[in-house]
Amino acid sequence: MGQRFLFSAIYLVIKTNDIRFNKPSLVGKEFAYIEDAVARGQLSGDGYYTKKCQKWLEVKIGSLAALITHSCTAALEMAAILCDLKPGDEVIMPSFTFVSTANAVALRGATPVFIDIRSDTLNINPSEAEDAVTEKTKAIFVVHYAGVVAEMNDFRDIADRHGLLLVEDAAQALGSSYHGAPAGSFGDLAAFSFHETKNVISGEGGALIINNPDMIERAEIIREKGTNRSQFFRGQVDKYSWVDIGSSFLPGELIAAFLYAQMEMEPEILARRMALWDTYHSAFSPLAEASGFATPSIPPYCDHNAHMYYLLLSDADVRQNFIQDMGATRFLTEDYLVFLN
Ligand SMILES: *Cc1c(COP(=O)(O)O)cnc(C)c1O
Fold first, then answer.
1. What is the CA radius of gyration of the chain?
2. Helix pair angle (30-40, 48-61), 10° resolution
3. Bridge partners of 179?
4. 14, 29, 92, 153 — which has fewest CB within 10 A?
5. What is the pTM of this model?
6. Cα 162 to chain centroid, rounded
7. pLDDT the model gives residue 333
């Protein structure tokens, strides 16, 4: 099949379905909850809506604790502190990820060790990850690319055998699962993003999920500028003070109010995204083999969350032609950048 024909076919699918990469929208009671948050008289963090969001996550993931943060980047930085990363420590992670995974490690003075991804799921390859373990390795940071959960049985096994901490960068994976268990439930820690390009959004936003009971108390402290303020509010100490390093990782109540309205609508958001994803998939799959491009491959035991749809073009030249062709004909505006991910 000619390249032109292929490009037009792709364009037609995008255009007729009006599928855009990122158009943040209201899906439920966002404004009503923001108004309510103001009426409740607390706009700083850890108020009514923060607790609602955290409870929602704890139930959804089945985690011991969830703490919302101002970004997934912040949650990853908290994870790096909780792993006690120090200069000389190594952390294994996929080379194909967003910068925040690596930054969190580098900010502690530790060394990111990049591992290649599998060509099918684009997730970090467990056997290559295990080959990279040294006596300096402290943790593995796994990424669930495009909301397809990585091989967590293998990674849990590797982590246990080598005494490593396991962290999930689940930024793209809210609502995904692996062998029936939710993304975010496998690592000692997991980080989610509610950035406006993700499925459930609050503009900027994130969460740290804590599955390791030994890390809960310290996580609260790190998030509250290194103070034991949370214990103070629960009446567990009679004054609060500086007890550890930390920063201000929590969002204000306006963000939490917006986020909770989105969380309530998560099943509807997922269903809508899945319908679009399926439209893409049934349109592109029949063209793929003859045209020399690949569509996403989802292992049968993974339920993905339709976070993104991508096509893998055969090489860099074809990809460049594709971008140019779409651009020249105004096919590819910023709204339609979904294919270049
Ligand atoms: C979006 C994303 C992040 C960063 O999320 P923010 O909430 O914007 O900080 C980190 N890792 C991955 C894999 C992401 O996709």
1. 21
2. 130
3. none
4. 153
5. 0.92
6. 26
7. 42
- Which amino acid is it at 255? I
User: From the CB of 168, is ligand 1 less than 6 Å away?
Assistant: no
Q: Contact at 8 Å (CB) between 190 and 61?
A: yes
| CA 146 remoteness from chain centre | 9
DSSP state string for 223-281: HBTTB-HHHHHTTSSSS--B-S---B-PPPHHHHHHHHHHHHTHHHHHHHHHHHHHHHH
Cα–Cα nearest to 84, from 47, 59, 110, 116: 110
Q: Three-state DSSP class for 324?
A: helix
Q: What is the mean pLDDT of each run of 10 residues along the chain (341 residues)?
A: 64 66 85 98 97 98 98 98 98 97 98 96 97 98 98 98 98 98 98 97 98 98 95 91 97 98 96 91 87 91 95 87 67 40 30
Tell me what pLDDT residue 326 has. 66
pLDDT, residue 341, reads 30
Amino acid at 220: E
Residues 139 and 166: beta-carbon distance below 8 Å: yes
**CB distance 93 to ligand 1 below 6 Å:** no
Residue 96 Cβ contacting ligand 1 at under 6 Å: no
- Cα of 63 vs centre of ligand 1, distance in Å, is 20
Task: Please indicate whether residue 73, judged by its CB atom, sits closer than 6 Å to ligand 1.
Answer: yes
Taking the C-alpha atoms of residue 19 and residue 332, their distance in angstroms, rounded to an integer, is 12
Query: Which of 195, 197, 209, 255 has most ligand 1 atoms within 8 Å of its beta carbon, as the pocket-test mutant?
Result: 195
